[in-house]
Amino acid sequence: MNEPLQELRLEAITKRFPGVLACDRVSLEVRRGEVLALVGENGAGKSTLMNILAGLYQPDEGRILVNGEPVHFRSPSDAYDRGIGMVHQNFMLVPNMTVAENVALGLKSLHRGLRLDIKEARRRVREVASHHELPVNPEARVWQLSVGEQQRVELVKTLCLGARLLILDEPTSALTPQETDDLLDRLKRMMAELSIIFISHKLNEVKALSDRVTILRHGKVVFNGSTANHSTAELAALMTGREVVLPRNEGSGATGRPILAVEGLRVRGDRGHLALDGLDLEVRAGEILGLAGVSGNGQRELADALAGLRPVESGTIRLDGEDIAGSSPRSIIDRGMGYIPEDRHHEGIVSAFSVRENLVLKDFATGRFSRGGLLRLGDIQGNADELRERFDIRCSSTAVAAGTLSGGNIQKVILARELIRGPKALVAVYPTRGVDMGAEEFIHNQLLALRRDSVGILLVSEELEEIMNLSDRIAVIYKGRILAVVPSRQATREKLGLLMAGVVHE
Amino acid sequence: MSAGRMAYDILSLGVPFSVALLLAALGEMFNQRAGVFNLGCEGIMSMGAFLGFLPAFLARSGALGPWADVLGFGLAAGSGVLLGLLFAVVTVTFRAPQGIAGIGLQMLGCGVAGTLFRHFIGGVTGVEGVAAWPIPLLSRIPVLGGILFNHNPVVYLAYLAVPASWYLLYRTPWGLRVRAVGTHPRAADTMGINVNRVRYQALMLGGAMGGMGGAYLSLCQAKMFADDLVAGRGFIAVALVYFGRWSPWGIAGGALLFSLAQSLQLSIQVGGIKFPYEFAVMLPYALVILVLALTRARTLGPTALGKAFDREMRV
Amino acid sequence: MSRRYRLIYSAGVIALAAAAAASTAALVLWAIGASPWATFGVILTGPLRDVFGLTEILVRAVPLILVALGVAISFRSGILNIGAEGQILIGILCATGTALGLSQLPRAVLLPLCLAAGAAGGALWGGIAGVLRARLDVNEILSTVMLNYIAAQLYTFTLRGPMIDPAELMTGSGTPQSMRLTRAVWLDRLIPGTRLHSGLVIALVLAVLVWVLLWRTTLGYRMRAAGAGSTAARYAGIHVERALVVAMLLGGGFAGLAGAIEVLGVHHRAIEAISSGYGFAAIVVALFGGLHPLGIVPSAVFFGLLLVGADMTQRSNGVPANMILVFQGAIILAIVSAKMYLNNPYARQRAAKLLGKLLPSRAGSSAEEAGP
Predict the structure, then answer these.
(1) Strands A7-17 and A20-31
(2) DSSP code at position C164
(3) Radius of gyration of chain A from Cα atoms?
(4) In this structure, is residue A177 part of a structural domain?
(5) Which of A229, A313, A382, C191 has its CA 20 to 30 A from that of A84?
(6) B249 inside domain
(7) What angle, rounded to 10 degrees, do the helices at C199-216 and C218-228 form?
(8) Which residues of C touch A347 (CB under 8 A)?
(9) Would you call C330 and B108 a contact, using CB atoms and an 8 Å cutoff?
(10) In a shared domain, residues A176 and A88
(11) Are A454 and A365 in contact (CB under 8 A)?
């Protein structure tokens, strides 16, 4: 067993990636039994810093001191040897292996000899699980577990591997409000034995759980202090460096005609199960309908079906009256459906194509940009120049590969492309995920502008705040069905949280 | 020739014909389970076939006896390890695309084998090869005895390699690491497993087995070496891994299936049936395409297959 | 990385790759007792000694250009066509069959018809793999390689059987080759006394057309998008499967055309070892040429040089013809490795760090400058 961690210090840590300075002389410290919150916008460098601490990245400069002793982590094993373990935002579990096998991967003592002592791994799991009250079944296969259960497995795993300092990267991003409260309680109980650093951009959680908070902006530490002495608003201002008030939807709720009407939709997921089981949904012209729900309840499959990328077993999807269920993506696009996909790098743009080529990705074959099968390069360039100006797309020229742009700018390219087509309806899937606040503000403003232009918008997001801010009505999806549709004014975090967990109040 | 006799011939040839494929495919299984597909298998088999053949050829006078064959297999395995290592450097360390790199390795391996053969040996010469070791009691069983128990020792070893591979993959710590690295390398990385090292190891093991598969072809099956001896078996071995669903048992079944197609071709010619020689030769290759078309193995395979792992790459 | 360092870095990577390939070949040459320097010398300079040698280089370059153009189209569309060998053979069969069967037709009709038949045959053969990939997700590397073996058997069968020269049967020598094709379909010789034929013109014209196709047409845009980002292309309404099939049809078609031109321009009959590895060599040519017509033409000329040179060393130095495979394999491995270091920013950064450790002066720190 490790000696308990008395003190951990990071001194002047610097890390560079191609084209970006992720961490700029960052220093922080954590003491035994303390909870430190590491806060900052997307892209501020929080995950990178913690990955360095966990032994995944090597810092370019700076050093790490454990109990006063400088250490050098060449790999996560070294970090675990010193009692530092990390639970990543995207779970690091091999899906088709059991929990015990996953833990066994990291237990070095089991790797000597010819035979794998899986029984010992199971025993260890049960021991740690019961000690920390984290119920986990060592024999379960990971892909069968829910998101909350997988997170418990991750916690047990890190503890089994000897962690005395837990690093949690955005632990509540995929949880319902109730699961979040549950997790925070568990963590509070664990504080007696462990130190915790958790990364978050949700300031209410920061206030609830942490003793101290360090704020990063653009890779630099801008604040380091005790949580209790500062309000959420102050912290938010420090996080972004200015007063950012995200735009709100002040509208009175739309009364336009239904522009996108889904009825009785049944769609199969990748594993063959019924991901959408009779889903009914209606988006009116000039309204933003927010779709709230824990990821994995059918949002992906719904978005795919709306874009024509997934076969529809039964049901209808009416775009401005016409049934498009099962139509090809091309015809759906031509009929006026806009789409901002989840994975901007692989689904939204062709990374290797230039910015100007990407801006015509959906329209290159129309009369505007081609004639007789030949591309009209002059018009394509003109289009690119105009959109770059209008949407403030930061790039050295429109000829550079789109994949080299920052996340926010890529999203602007995608947005620009969709918006100038004048869609009737727009499906936006996690549009501000991983994007800094400046770009988030811009995107929100664009969505609200579209709304004023009578476009019907389906906003799929995991950020309740974003949904509550922007939507006219909020629909909650649970296990492939819409559980309820609530006017935004009547929606509260608690109410939505219950619905997201499947609890329906009568 | 009676139908029964022909069936017996086809089946009894099926087992020994399957060994080269089986060994190479088992080796490739380890590669693919670790996330790398090595199309250079064909080149590795060529080199293995040549180097396996060389000591037996040089010691034609019988000076070394059976040790010439053992040396041959050893050299073949060694060259397989080296070629596997080269492939690992290119695809794991340099992270080059695996498909084209594999074709490059194939050209290199076949080219070197052919060049050395032309220079040192010149023409097609036969060797005595490895004799059969009939298993004492079992080979006397009527029909089955001839089909299963009357073969050279390498056949028995190759089939023992099937359960041994299963054990290695599912019951040892190394096998656990290989499976993790091929399915979710990032997760393995966070638990302190050196993804690249495991891939190197898998590629070297795969190369060794491929080399031995090649040596079997020249020493035990054809008992000679020629430029076109391997004739695409290396590629068929890669396809077999998909077909066998990355499991040793499935691969063994697949290898038998393909070798039956080959022994069918031989029996057709020997049996004097009027069937164009070239079309019979086409059979195994067409069978591969058919089999690939009918297997939808995508969802069951190692999910990280074909993708290079780069820790620094931001997700 | 600043401009100047980029250039030095790129040059360094390319030099290292070339050295690695050359060393590998040298190692093999040393093993068979041939002097690497002498061999490289003959290969690189031998063919340049006289006009005939120079034209021979171009004769080899013609099929290489054509097939490599097809390879470039398919690779850029995201489908790895390794089946050029087989597609060439099927193209030869179709062209020869047409020439033999319709030999009464006038040249103005017969010649283009034969060329078209060759292209169509190759396109069909490539199309099989394309459809298998598009509809059934069959790995195209495996299917095209299998189709190569099948095509080889078909070719031998046809040449020994239906298409064999009746003269061979009479004299009993049984060499598998077709009858000599009527003069009507022979491609014109560009320089009398050499084998250089008008196929060169066709190849160069097609190179320009391919450039136009890929970068100036909507079809080309579709195919490049399918290759560079198939998921995003799908989301944008592009029919990726259709693009893949078209790419294989074109790739096969170019290979089939190359085969037809070889028969009509050089040999004037279908013979056994006619393709002599052009299908595989063209892949190397295409990669070496950066999958771009502008690079493919000089690359094909260079490989033409290597092929003629290798032939010469076989005769003069006793270096076996298989060495050419060794060269090609080593070059492919070198190219794909080098490409990763040239294009991948992460690899560049790693190399820069390594440089920084080896040369602690300004070379390291400037190279590490953050900058796209």
Answers:
(1) antiparallel
(2) B
(3) 24
(4) yes
(5) A229
(6) yes
(7) 70
(8) 231-232, 235
(9) yes
(10) yes
(11) no
Query: A456: domain range?
Result: 245-336+423-506
Whether residue A267 is found in the same domain as residue A312: yes
- pLDDT for residue A243: 64
State the average pLDDT for chain A.
88
Q: Report whether B34 contacts B199 (CB < 8 A).
A: yes
Q: Are residues A131 and A221 in the same domain?
A: yes
Mean pLDDT, range B87-93, rounded to an integer:
95
Instruction: Look at chain B and report how many structural domains it folds into.
Output: 1
Residues whose CB is less than 8 angstroms from the CB of residue C145 and which lie 6 or more positions away in sequence, other chains included:
B232, B235, C82, C83
Q: Is residue B273 part of a domain?
A: yes
- Compute CA distances C272 → B130, B137, C17, whole Å: 35, 51, 35
A474 in the same domain as A355: no
Residue C159 has pLDDT above 90, yes or no: no
- Pair (A225, A356) in one structural domain: no
Banded pLDDT at C364 (limits 50, 70, 90) = very low
Domain boundary residue among A182, A216, A240? A240
Instruction: Give the one of B173, B183, B314 whose C-beta lies nearest to A17's C-beta.
Output: B314
Q: Are residues A412 and A304 in the same domain?
A: no
Same domain, A100 and A73: yes
Mark yes or no for CB contact A330/C238 under 8 Å: yes
Nearest CA in chain C to B280: C153
Q: Do C150 and B285 touch (CB under 8 A)?
A: yes
Q: pLDDT tens for residues A63-102? A: 999 988 999 998 898 999 999 999 998 899 999 899 999 9
Number of Cβ within 10 Å of residue C129's Cβ equals: 33
Residue B172 to residue A114, Cβ atoms within 8 A: yes
CB–CB of B42/B177 below 8 Å? no
B184 near A CB under 8 A? yes
- B196 close to B71: Cβ distance less than 8 angstroms: no
Establish if C367 touches chain A: CB-CB under 8 angstroms: no
Residue of A nearest to C2 (CA): A19
Whether A53 and A80 share a structural domain = yes
**Whether C218 and A18 lie within 8 Å, measured CB to CB:** no
| Neighboring chain A residues of C221 at a CB cutoff of 8 Å | 357, 364, 375
Q: What's the rounded mean pLDDT across residues C152-178?
A: 81
Q: Indicate whether B280 belongs to any domain.
A: yes
pLDDT, position B314: 55
Q: How many percent of chain A have pLDDT more than 70?
A: 98
A vs B: CB pairs below 8 A: 75
Whole-number percent of chain B with pLDDT over 70: 91
**Beta carbons of B191 and A106 less than 8 Å apart:** yes
Q: Using one digit for the tens of pLDDT, what is the confidence trace for A165-195?
A: 999 998 888 787 788 888 888 888 888 788 9
Provide the CATH number for the domain around residue B247.
1.10.3470
Residue of B nearest to A161 (CA): B191
Tell me the chain C residues in contact with residue B99 when contact means C-beta distances shorter than 8 Å: 80, 141
Q: What total number of domains does chain A contain?
A: 3
- Residue B228: domain span: 3-122+135-300
- pLDDT of B296 reads 67
Record the pTM: 0.89
pLDDT score at A233: 78
